[in-house]
Amino acid sequence: MAQTDKIVHALDARYYTDPVIFKAEQNGLFLRSWQFAGHASQVEKPGMYFTFELAGESLFCVKDRDEEIRCFYNVCMHRAHELLSGSGRSSLITCPYHAWSYSLDGQLKAGPNIDSVPGFDKSDICLTSVRVENFHGFLFVNLDPEAAPMDEWFPGVRAELADFVPHIDRLKPIEFVEIPETCNWKLSVENYSECYHCSLNHPTFSTGVVKPETYDIQPQGHCLRHTTECQNLDQMSYPIDMDANAFAGDYSSWFLWPMFSFQVYPGNVLNTYHWRALDVDKVVVYRGWYTIDGAESETIRNLAVQDRQTTVEEDIRLVESVQKGLNSRGYRPGPLVLDPKGGVASEHSIAALHSWMREAVAKQID
After folding, report:
1. Taking the CA of residue 304 as centre, how many other CA atoms within 13 Å lie in the half-sphere pointing to its CB?
2. Residue 3: is its pLDDT beyond 90?
3. What is the C-alpha separation between 192 and 360, in angstroms, rounded?
4. 118: which DSSP letter?
5. Using one digit for the tens of pLDDT, what is the confidence trace for 156-173?
6. What's the rounded Cα separation, in Å, for the pair 256 and 268?
7. Is 245 left (phi over 0), alpha (psi -120 to 50) or beta?
8. Residue 272 is inside which H or E element, if any?
9. Does domain 35-142 have CATH number 2.102.10.10?
């Protein structure tokens, strides 16, 4: 009986299929967690901006005249028209509806005939700002003004990334691969967060990149830290220089709850995942690839192609099949395999994810 008491079951299917739960996540978790916005190289010079969507909100990042990167809700404070679209560069942020204009720090600058209004004070009107953090050139935002900083959410990650990728602050994206998946976002995140399935389902990754038998995942704050060794050099699917760095022969990943991951392939090759949840059963995953100063690299381009044609395609089939299964009347949540020794065949990382998922929904619904 004591053995039975220790069994931990997977989440109920409703966590992945119920629109009410997805709405609770949109109104709670997505608004109160650190989410990837874009890369600092997109706003290298004052006036450069880019827009993005998050939790049903339109937002934009911009570099102001003092070289500070800011983030604002993408809405005019006059009569709510959207201010910007896409990306570009401008000395002012001007609303296309009535031409109210704002300086790059969000303060109202001018508007047709506003000086005729008695008592109108431009200094009282400013765009609504959003917290933004620059994490080694990767810009994250949090719509909760009271949220703890990223280093508290993800202790040690900033320093570890600098060790594994000494040139990380010089990286720029050269490619983003967009991957639509017909599944709940949590299924895609769970699939990423265990390698129990790797040897069976990812032959290229398991034989040409890592040694899956050495794979392990451990919680680190609200981070899941993946570690493993690279495959034997004569089996690697791309060349690496083992002497380039102390960690050149390692694979490591830092999944930052709830929707972003830094992933370092052997050879100190940084790539990223970020997720955008569109609906209860629709998510888009973006796979980012980076080089120093954005220089062209045949190796990185080939890796992006290899990854898209193998691991990514294999994962799409897996997560979409699971989503169908969760809608089956015959499904009952099975027990997780929680090996006290950890390792690749243990699902303790999934148990950690499930606890965060339950907590996020409970806070909003209760």
Report:
1. 23
2. no
3. 19
4. T
5. 999 999 999 999 999 999
6. 19
7. beta
8. strand 269-279
9. yes
Residue 312 DSSP class: I
Phi and psi torsions of 351, nearest 5°: -60, -40
The domains of the chain are located at 35-142, 159-365
Query: Is 170 exposed, middle or buried, given 0-12, 13-18 or 19+ CB atoms closer than 10 A?
Result: middle
Between CA 229 and CA 264 the distance in angstroms is 11
- On whether the CB atoms of residues 196 and 345 are closer than 8 A, the answer is yes
Name residue, tokens 């790539």: 271
Give the pLDDT band of residue 4 (cuts 50, 70, 90).
Answer: very low
Q: Distances from the Cα of 239 to the Cαs of 209, 228, 267, 284, in angstroms? A: 10, 18, 8, 30
In this structure, what DSSP letter does residue 122 have?
A: G
Which residues, 6 or more positions from 15, have their beta carbon under 8 angstroms from its beta carbon? Answer: 21, 184, 186, 357, 358, 361
pLDDT at 199 (0 to 100): 75
Distance CA 12, CA 28 (A): 20
In whole angstroms, give the CA distance from residue 140 to residue 279: 22
- Helix H segments across 6-124? 14-17, 19-27
Classified by CATH at the fold level, domain 159-365 comes out as: Naphthalene 1,2-dioxygenase Alpha Subunit; Chain A, domain 1 (3.90.380)
pTM for the model stands at: 0.92
List the 250-256 sheet strands across, edge first: 171-181, 282-292, 269-279, 260-265, 250-256, 223-229, 216-220
